[in-house]
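quick one, 116 residues, struct below
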Amino acid sequence: MIVRGSLIHLHTTTITTKRGSTQLTTLRVVDDHSRPQHGGQPGARHSPTRYEVQFVDSKLFQWSTAIQARFTVGDDLLVYAEDAIRVQGDKDGASTLVVYGIDVGHATQPFARRVE
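---
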């Protein structure tokens, strides 16, 4: 799946796994559905969708370093994530969709928009 939205929080923490300690990097992304969808119209949803995208460092990928070096709060992102979604509820009744990230990049749509 593709997650599209604004980065509102970036956090890295150490976690312990069966194979030892590693870094978990969490991106909180909010899609307010104001960006044009297919056909150039904004999305139909009225309330924002909140995502928590998790990246775990491995022998192949050091996500914690790469993500913190390239992204800051406020950036528009496109995240390629696994299709498995976990729903996490908050005290205020809002839900956050938790997904595992595969890759992340800056969105170019804001820069491609025509100004008339």
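Residues 63-70 form the longest helix (8 residues).
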